[in-house]
Records
---
Amino acid sequence: MTSFIRLCLVLLGICTLAACQKKDDATTAATGGDTVKIAFMGALTGDVAMYGKPTLEGMKMAAEEINAAGGVLGKKIEIIEADNRGDKQEGAALAQKFTSRDRVAAIVGDPTTGIAKVVAPIAQKAGVVMLSAGSTGPGVVEIGEYIFRNTLLDNVAIPALIDYFARDLGFRKVAMITSDNNDYSVGLSRTFSDAAKGRGIQIVADEKVKDGDKDFSAQVTNIKAKNPDVIFFSGYYTEGALIMKEARKQGMKVNMFGGDGISASTFLELGGSAVEGSVAYLGFSPEQTSGETAAFVENFKKRTGQVPEMFGAQGYDAVKLLADAMKRAGSTDPKLFRTALAQTKNFPGVSGTVTIRPNREPVKSPLCLLEVKGGKYVLKARVPVKLD
Amino acid sequence: MILQQLVNGVALGCTYALIALGYTMVYGIISLINFAHGEIFMAGAFAGLLLVAYGKLNLFLALAGAMLVSVLLGIGVEFVAYRPLRRASRLSALISAIGVSIFLSTLAMLLFGANARGFPEGTFPSRQIDIFGAQISSLQLLIIVTAGVLMLALELVVKKTRIGKAMRAASEDYTAAALMGINVNLVVTFTFALGSALAAAGGVLVGVLFNAVSFNMGLHAGIKAFAAAVLGGIGSIPGAVLGGIVLGVAEISGVALGYSSWRDAIAFAILVLVLLVRPTGLLGKRIDRKV
């Protein structure tokens, strides 16, 4: 036998084995059996792991609580987890696996707007519900009727934030920094510049960086020359921390304001004293809570040893929202509970009261401002959001 | 503000220069683009980080320790991945280098995770120095001075010492040098050791400057430093430093003018332009082929 033929036979053998393996896993459907599968889509390692890891913790906690109380319609929730490392291709590959091999009923994720937009078409096509517990940028739920989220949206929060700038903090000149290979950042900057028009705020500098950049000296020098009252950065925590270090190095005294992208402990670790006084806006704060939220905070602390922040709370709420929708629809089939989910009104989540609008976008109030004080995020203010 | 941007550019450029020196040296001697050089840089940065964060050493001791670690790693890589291929075509050695690069960066990702890590605060209490209105940090100044000092030191070693003579002989004609009784294995090992030590120094200094040490820092910085080395004339030691500075200034100028999305493209566009106009680089020697 020639070595070529031998090689072909070996490859054929490997393919056959792989195909057999596949068949065993694909038999469990989402609706049959005594478990209902919910997949976690997010990053457990990499540059955006600070959003994914807490979301998974929140999800697991909610699943355990629901299962301890008897499960959903008699079925136990099984959380299927995987790590997409913050990579779009990996996210797409995992979404394919969740919908075709694991046959999940729903996917909770992705916390980043960029990967959410990649996963949504896959979930939509497969008829699987996707509920993002973290993405806040535009252009996500428009992808299809199976796509939802339970976050405080940027286009809801930003007008309230800008009013707060002008009225309460007296800021007039803003230097905006956008990370232009980051969907969330690009969308947030656009929302900010649109909302700033006519609200008494002037954007004096519009600088661009990229996720993964390490050197920001040129951009900071440009901004310093314009003498802004505040730096608004619409990107993620690693770059945000490094930008502030560079700003302090060049002698700038102003602080950074940003979205939930800069709310992560890595922002504090990398930034050190340079990020003292910086503020992130998000839809949740573990301080000054009452009732269910306070109980959630206590239990989360006991379970993980850490105080929960927004992603953990929203991950927890996401699983509870899905379970609630399934109960109301009387089924764990996404085709059926999708409608119930779309009709959610005033759901008492631990991260805030959630109502899903007819266009499937969520409405949440209030907006929480977290300031970095003494190396920790401290609640600075709760700003009410206009619910039109 | 122009002066400040110039300062930013030169400082950034010297970080490339530190790495480019290693590339150019190894190529000059054994005609191999050591693609794993960026990973030695990264390994040096991690070694320095661990020594400062867990060994609680001060920065300069950690620097020495990191250089030692990188030297051992560099020599090990040469022994395992390049020496067996010395008789083979240059392409094989190049592919081997790429393989080592992927292996080391993945190993780092598995060992240290994918997050960027910073040096503990206060590792190098950096002061702002004012030069005619432009701000430069004492750390950036240190990097510029280090690049200059290393360049001079390397030139000295290569031009004035016996081992330097052996290196130059081996780079001119490898086989003839061996026939003349030069221990070429020793020369190559020494070259790798020297290059790796430089990379480690660069790694620690850059790691402290940008306060971000991650498994993929070698890939990114390595490509830019390679471009800098080629720009300045691969094989030329002053060329590596010049190439680094030119690249750094060009990159910063691009960003300052508002083209920050194009920052990497500018760097490589310059490389392509220089190669079209002057293929041996700015300071490279003209290659005459005797027919």
---
Amino acid sequence: MYRYDQFDHQITAERVSQFRDQVRRRLSGELTEEEFRILRLQNGLYMQIHAYMLRVAVPYGLLNAAQMRTLATIARKYDRGYGHFSTRQNVQFNWIKLQDTPDILADLAGVEMHANQTSGNCIRNLTCDEFAGVARDEIVDPRPYAEILRQWSTFHPEFAYLPRKFKIAITGATEDRAAIAVHDIGLAAVKNAQGEVGFRVLVGGGLGRTPVIGTEICDFVPWQHAISYLESIVRVYNEYGRRDNLYKARIKILVKAVGIEEFRRRVEADWRYTKDGPCTITVEELNRVSAFFTAPDYEQLPEHDAAVAAQLCDSRAFSNWVQRNVKPHKAPGYAAVVLSLKKTGIAPGDATAKQMDAAAELAERFSFGELRVTHMQNLVLADVRQTDLFDLWQAARELGMATPNIGLLTDIICCPGGDFCSLANARSIPLAKAIAERFDNIDFQHDIGEIELNMSGCMNACGHHHVGHIGILGVDKDGEEWYQVSIGGAQGNDSSLGKVIGPSFTFAQTPEVIARLLQVYVRERFADERFIDTVRRIGHTPFKEYVYASPVEAAEGLTGEEYALLAAPYDTPLYSAGV
Amino acid sequence: MVIKNKTITNDDWNVLRLGGQDTPESVVVPPGKVIVPLKVWQAQRDALHERAELGVWLASDERAEDLRDDLDKFSVIAVDFPKFADGRGYSIARHVRARLGYRGELRAIGDVLRDQIFYMQRVGFDAFAARADKDIGEALKGLSDFTFTYQASSDEKLPLFRRIQRGSRS
């Protein structure tokens, strides 16, 4: 993976000093909260209900063991012993004190990490295919481009005060595992007929209040021009994006308002000034960065390991895990392994400091010391010898990270929701836990097969509910939490937005609603048809009719309180002058 | 006082802002060194043309291109930041420097604060009228927050990877 040179180190260190001074000036009252708010956001620091939350960047989802251990240390030293892996491949710490943040950022800088631009109206941390570099369907390894674009977007002087946040995702494989169609800019690295690398560029996708699937603005931007082309898109957005209404300020609204042809015309008009200029990426720079992403020293191994075949026969639990959590690898005899952070009873994406340390150790033992964070909120060991799968499975099982549910019903994407987030209308983690508990039976889950259940606690859609095969959205009705259920959403190559099935449900009704949707699916499905394909084939009506045919009983005694987080009172005020 | 060429200096320019009753056509431009709104320049260009020293300022929703044919008329071009979080001024400055090739004084006015002026300097501003209620000496420190920068902009014509020998995998 990429390693900092002296310039990366110095830039990161100076950022820490800058923020340390900003915090000092805030505490002394020199900076007002309004002036400070934007500065702290651009350093990843949110104010939530109970405390500050610090969102640490995991650039394009890649971590080494030392970095993971530092996250564990931060969880222990400054937080409550755990962290939360987010859908943007980042890590969030929920119980942070403002006064500690400069030291945390300094600890992070020591292992080449930061929290730059993980919030605020600027270019956010880039996200990427979690199987980049090892996927069999990869056309181009996107990681060198992701790093080049990370550097370009870091402290870009022109784009720190955009109308709204700006998210970029990049992939280089046939299958889109980075949800590029629901990003402000989606990049798919491709090769043209001459074998040259370039990017298919989508623009104006996004979730939130107004979900939109991105539109192609260019089918091939040669890689040399990636920076200048992206700069033109962001510049046009900076100039023309709406600033009068927070909810209409994303680039998707601008693209819709002027139309893709006019938007493209403006981008190309700007690009004429800069194309082939100094921002053109050089072969030397691409080679320099690419050298950090060469394949590790793989052993020459047979395609399949005979011992694994025997282990699969011996242990049904192991075979379930291999079936769901082990993914194909381009190198013979290797596999990519997903460590599930979706164990029933645990908030989706949460990991304790102990698990983080242990995951770092597993990475060193089994996967060349590297890990990835997935946008589905799990971890990946990307380069595991098949021979080691059984040992790894046993070790992961002891850590509670081997639930064989990747891509299944309980592999729920979930935002922090009302337990933490001041924007939320409803809690999401307790409902995710209640649903996971109800459908905990792994045989049932394997029978249902691939399905994505995504849940957001409000319409800002951090839990990507629009693109869940089943989406759940928390809504507020007269101060009570209700949940709106949609079906038919999907991410990836065949992205679509879900449609709401009807009036919303209470917390206690929602697990039963999911059960009824699954009953219709089981009744209607063809042999190997996935839930989403059945929905697409038969439409919403059969699902809707069945769910609403009879009153949905509230599960007895289910209030959500038993799944709630203990929101222990925070022992110091969020902020008080002169602390 | 303004920051100019990285030092705090006295300044005798006055920024003309239209009041509620004023129109670009009717407003009286006082004598002396005045930075007028773009719209006033456009409405009164014949009269203003005669002045020995004149400045113009762009609002954040105005376009640098509107000054393309008039650059040599102005001793200073200013860009207004109505709120520091309104980032349009950064792209305007970039256009004034890169597209129009303007080399004279480019001044940031309005909600100009210490924590933004590093980026402002990068996109081409060389003068900063820091907000009056803030310590201008503090603001000056903001110009030296970073030693190195990744991108090409108005201050550095080349991105870091063309400017300097970067470290490679050892």
